[in-house]
Model the fold of this input.
Amino acid sequence: MQIFKSKETKEFEKKITLKKTVNEMGKQLKVLQEQKNIYIEKAKEAKKHGLPNELNLAISALKSAMAQEKKIREMKINFEIMISLKDMLKTTSEFLEGMKTLSKDMVKLTDDRQFSKVAKQFGLAMMSTEKQKERVELFLEDSKDSFSSIGETPDVSNEEIMSLIDEEINLDEKSDDLDNILQTLDGKIRNEKNG
Done:
């Protein structure tokens, strides 16, 4: 068992953990989609058989699943953005470290006249890096607002739910009509063959 892990090993383990988290959120979204389909079927069944209490229960469950799906989708998107920002910040950090090393080497290789030119260029590079850092900080501040809104329950209206249920019922009825037509045609074809 390794007591001290290398920097590369720690970084690899972090990437695996982040990937697992994104995959888990994807799995949750699939589970919620399956639950929504079940609730829609139950709502259709309740509506067809005139069971208002069961219809209301199915609608409540569907609303809950839709709200949870929206929250998880928001979290997944924010998480993926934060991973991307982390990678960008790492690149910026590596750039700054490289500039620091390069600047040290340049100081050793140049005289005072050349150093003033290098210092000016380095100053410009640092200003550019600072602007990028400010943009990232502004983005992160905006992201905080997104994360704070995750706890709020999104409004899913009963009209939206009922429209979805009615649409599914209409599709079922059209499918039943088509099945009846096909059975009638099949019966006529058999009668003609036998007759």
